[in-house]
Structure formats: structure tokens, C-alpha cells
């Protein structure tokens, strides 16, 4: 079995050569630099050595020189296999040093093997060749070697300088964005100490410099967040998802005033996936929040007036809408709907009978049972409610909830005869709350039936007229969670 030493400081190259030669019957020894290769060769001389040129500790040229000066090794062929030194002068130097073949990476495996075999065969035929004698030739070669190294170093330094310039330009570009951004940009430690912050950030918080913020704020969770629970929620989301989007909270400024902010943040982790720090961008949205609050108040004022007008005309159902709103939002909460959706359900409940404005008042208060025609006039309130409100843009699906609150799961409801999931969730919740409240309360044409009979109706028709899940949640509220319709609360 022929023996080969392969020398390369790159793990990948070494593994590749080792595999290649092993696969072709060689006994392979690997070395990561010239010194290691010499040690291995002196202990057990190989039949051939193949070496990279540029390596730490001892490069290929020095290895070649030592190799050819060693009486035991000099007759063993040495091949340069390099990608770094590709200048013709390098090849000349290597050959002058006594190298037997100079190959440039990469070579096809077959070619590499073939070349190695040829060199070995040649050596077996003529065992000789002394690269340089003691007449000064060695010194000359050494000088050539130094020149080669110097040339390479010069080239390397130039490349580094160029790369440095690119980094500097890129840094200046990002520095400018950081300094001039209108959005606050920051980096904190896991404990909440600010490491970096841009002018937009410290101006937003009422400070004059980053140093001032850093000296006064040592824990943003406790000193900047108005509500520490917000900070805890924020960190929980951040650690779970690695980022937060549009996280809204309130910050306390240097002068004690409060601002609303939205935070987009992300985690920076090390190679072991441990969090190094948090980074993010912050915007002051106080104006937007106050504007939305005003609009919401105005809308709620209007909704409350509409609810009052409906109930003024229909004293028997006074309080009906409010109680339906309370029960419907209690059901929505039990269904774990987002708070925004729960709010929509509550508001839809407050005005779900707005269409009764268009029903003759005497029908609403008529103490006897209604005729079919009278009934159809009363039933028209669902469509009428839709028509009245359809020009208004609500931030919730109130219009459809009102339109569909008398629709039934089996399609037997009105005005559209919708069924199952074609009825929106808010309307399905309202339907259950409406029936429970209406049956439990007094009506012009009958006395209150009471909550037990109302719940029996829901039980009997769940999955037929009423959404089964919603019906179950409602039954559970009354039967196991102590919900009381008159109080609108449950314990
Ligand atoms: Fe209704």
C-alpha cells in the first residue's frame, strides 16, 4: 500500500484529499502545516507528499525547502496543490526549491490522482535530483521565497485596506440613518439597560443626550413603562416569537408626562441561541390615540342616544338592549374573543333593535298577541335597523350583527333566511342573548316567563335555532358561573 501525506490548513480541503486518496488505496496521513508534515514524514517516510502553499506555522515553500534538504526525504516526490499562489513566479520558486509538480486548485480527482501516480512512477525510475547545493544557490532561493511572501503580503494589505474603506462607507451610511431617523431606535440589555439610542429616542422621552438617559434610566421596564405588566407581556412575546409588532404601551417621559408609543422589537442571539440584547424602533402615537379616543367617545355618545330613543318609544323593552349587550359581551368574553371583538358585540347589543324606530309605537306596546301582518311589521325592524345605519362606518361589524340578529342556524330566521356560518359570529351571539333576555323579561302581551324557561328554550333548540357552542357557553354562565340577567354581572 502506498503512503501519502496531505498537508492543508483548511479542514474541508484536508478531508477531501484524505477521502480521495484513501478511496484509491493509499494509506493517508494528514497534517495542518509544514512542521506537522515533517514530523510525520521523519517518523514514517511516505511515498509522496502533497501540500498547500499558504499555511500557518510553516508554509509549503519552507516545507519544500526542508524536505529537499533532508537526506531521508529529498527523494520522495513533493507536489504543490494550491489556490493561493497562482503567480507564475510562485510556480518557479516552488520548482526551484525542488518541488516535483505544481498544481493549481481545483483539479478533477482523476487528474490529481493520475498526476500523483506519474510523479511517483518517475521517481521510482530515477531516484535523484538535489534542488540546491551549498554554493549560495540556497540563499538565492531563500531570497526569492522572501520576495514572494512580501508580494503576497502587500497584496493582502491592499485588499484589507479596500475592505476597510467599504466598511467605513457603509458605517457612515447607517450612522446617518440612525442619527436622522424620526423613529426612535435603541438597543438594550436583557435587564433593560439602554446601550444605544438615537436622537429621536431621547428627544421623544424629553432628554437632551443619550448619556443623560443612560445615567438616569437603568431599567426601562421600571422607569419608562407606566405599567410594568406591559413590560412583562412585551418580553414574553419577544422571547417567544423573537419579535414584536406594533406593541402599544405608555411611557413616562423625563418631566413625568405620559406618551403612547408603539414598539417593533426583535432579539439578537449568539451562536448558542442565547439572547444577547434586544433592539427595536419606537414611535410616539399619542396624537393618534387621543384622536381615536375622541372619535370613539363621539360614536359612543351617538350610540347611547340612539339606544335611548328606541327605548323611549318602547317602555316595555326599556333596558332590553343594555341587558342584551351585557349578556352578549359576557358570552363573547367566555368564548375568549379578542377584546376588540368583545367590544363590538357589546355595542351591537346596545343598538340591535334600532330598527324598531320605524315600527308603529302602538304595535310595540300592544298588550294582546299580534296578528300575522302586525308581526311582519315588527319583524321588519331587523332590515330597518340595517337601512338606518348602513351609511355609518363602524370599526366593528355592527351593521351585519344588527341585520342578522333574528337569523337562525337552520335558516328559519329573518330577514334573509341565512343559516349556520353564513350568519356572522356577532349575530349568533346576539341571537342567544336576545332570546334569553326577551323571554326572561316582561312583555306587553305576557308576563315574564323567567330565566329557567328561557334557558330551557336555548337548551331545546341549541344546534337547531341557536349556535350550539354559544348556547352552551350561555347556559354555563347562568347555571355554573352565577350570571344574573338583572344585574348584568356574574361572580
Ligand atoms: Fe330584535
Would you mind describing this structure in some detail?
The protein has 491 residues and is α/β, with parallel strands linked by helices. It folds into 3 domains: 3-152, Response regulator (Rossmann fold, 3-Layer(aba) Sandwich), CATH 3.40.50.2300; 184-284, 2-Layer Sandwich (Beta-Lactamase), CATH 3.30.450.20; 289-480, Hypothetical protein af1432. 52% of the residues lie in helices and 13% in strands. The chain has 20 helices and 10 strands. The chain has helices spanning 11-23, 34-43, 60-69, 88-96, 109-125, 137-180, 199-204, 210-216, 220-223, 228-241, 286-313, 320-334, 339-350, 361-364, 372-379, 381-389, 398-403, 425-440, 451-461, 468-480, and strands at residues 3-7, 27-31, 48-51, 78-82, 101-104, 184-188, 194-197, 243-252, 258-269, 275-284. The strands form 2 sheets. A 5-stranded parallel β-sheet has the order 2-1-3-4-5, with helices on both faces. Strands 7-6-10-9-8 form a 5-stranded antiparallel β-sheet, sandwiched between helices. Helix 2 (34-43) runs parallel beside helix 3 (60-69), helix 13 crosses helix 18 (425-440) and helix 18 packs antiparallel against helix 19. The protein is elongated and about 125 Å long. It starts with a strand and ends in an 11-residue tail after the last helix. The relative contact order is 0.05. Residues 128-134 have low confidence and may be disordered. The site of fe (ii) ion has 6 residues, from loops.
Amino acid at each position: 500500500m502506498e503512503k501519502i501525506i496531505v498537508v492543508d490548513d483548511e479542514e474541508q480541503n484536508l478531508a477531501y484529499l484524505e477521502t480521495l486518496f484513501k478511496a484509491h488505496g493509499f494509506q493517508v496521513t494528514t497534517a495542518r502545516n509544514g512542521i506537522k508534515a515533517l514530523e510525520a514524514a521523519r517518523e514514517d517516510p511516505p511515498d509522496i507528499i502533497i501540500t498547500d502553499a499558504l499555511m500557518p506555522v510553516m508554509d509549503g515553500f519552507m516545507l519544500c525547502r526542508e524536505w529537499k534538504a533532508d537526506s531521508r526525504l529529498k527523494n520522495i516526490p513533493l507536489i504543490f496543490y494550491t489556490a493561493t499562489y497562482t503567480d507564475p513566479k510562485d510556480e518557479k520558486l516552488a520548482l526551484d526549491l525542488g518541488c516535483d509538480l505544481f498544481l493549481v486548485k481545483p483539479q478533477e480527482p482523476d487528474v490529481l490522482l493520475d498526476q500523483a501516480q506519474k510523479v511517483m512512477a518517475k521517481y521510482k525510475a530515477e531516484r535523484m535530483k538535489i534542488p540546491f547545493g551549498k554554493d549560495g544557490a540556497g540563499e538565492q532561493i531563500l531570497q526569492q521565497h522572501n520576495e514572494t511572501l512580501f508580494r503576497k503580503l502587500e497584496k493582502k494589505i491592499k485588499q484589507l485596506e479596500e475592505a476597510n474603506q467599504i466598511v467605513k462607507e457603509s458605517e457612515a451610511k447607517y450612522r446617518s440613518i440612525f442619527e436622522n431617523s424620526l423613529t426612535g431606535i435603541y438597543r438594550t440589555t436583557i435587564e433593560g439597560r439602554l446601550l444605544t439610542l438615537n436622537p429621536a429616542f431621547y428627544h421623544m422621552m424629553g432628554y437632551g443626550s443619550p448619556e443623560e438617559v443612560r445615567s438616569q434610566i437603568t431599567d426601562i421596564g421600571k422607569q419608562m413603562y407606566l405599567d410594568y405588566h406591559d413590560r412583562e407581556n412585551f418580553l414574553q412575546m419577544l422571547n417567544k416569537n423573537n419579535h414584536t409588532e406594533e406593541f402599544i404601551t405608555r411611557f413616562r417621559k423625563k418631566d413625568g408626562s405620559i406618551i403612547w408609543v408603539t414598539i417593533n422589537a426583535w432579539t439578537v442571539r449568539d451562536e448558542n441561541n442565547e439572547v444577547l440584547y434586544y433592539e427595536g424602533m419606537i414611535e410616539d402615537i399619542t396624537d393618534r390615540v387621543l384622536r381615536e379616543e375622541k372619535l370613539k367617545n363621539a360614536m359612543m355618545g351617538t350610540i347611547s342616544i340612539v339606544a335611548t330613543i328606541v327605548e323611549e318609544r318602547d317602555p316595555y323593552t326599556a333596558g332590553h338592549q343594555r341587558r342584551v349587550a351585557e349578556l352578549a359581551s359576557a358570552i363573547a368574553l367566555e368564548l375568549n374573543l379578542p377584546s376588540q371583538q368583545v367590544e363590538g358585540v357589546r355595542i351591537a347589543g346596545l343598538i340591535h333593535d334600532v330598527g324598531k324606530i320605524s315600527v308603529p309605537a302602538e304595535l310595540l306596546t300592544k298588550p294582546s298577541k299580534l296578528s300575522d301582518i302586525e308581526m311582519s311589521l315588527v319583524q321588519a325592524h331587523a332590515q330597518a335597523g340595517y337601512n338606518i345605519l348602513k351609511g355609518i362606518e363602524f370599526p366593528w361589524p355592527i351593521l351585519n350583527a344588527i341585520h342578522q340578529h333574528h337569523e337562525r342556524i337552520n335558516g328559519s330566521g329573518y330577514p334573509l333566511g341565512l343559516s349556520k356560518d353564513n350568519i356572522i359570529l356577532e349575530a349568533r351571539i346576539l341571537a342567544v342573548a336576545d332570546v334569553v333576555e326577551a323571554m326572561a323579561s316582561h312583555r306587553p302581551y305576557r308576563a315574564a316567563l323567567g330565566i329557567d324557561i328561557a334557558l330551557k328554550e336555548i337548551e331545546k333548540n341549541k344546534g337547531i335555532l341557536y349556535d350550539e357552542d354559544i348556547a352552551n357557553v350561555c347556559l354555563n354562565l347562568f347555571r355554573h358561573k352565577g350570571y344574573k340577567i338583572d344585574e348584568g354581572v356574574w361572580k
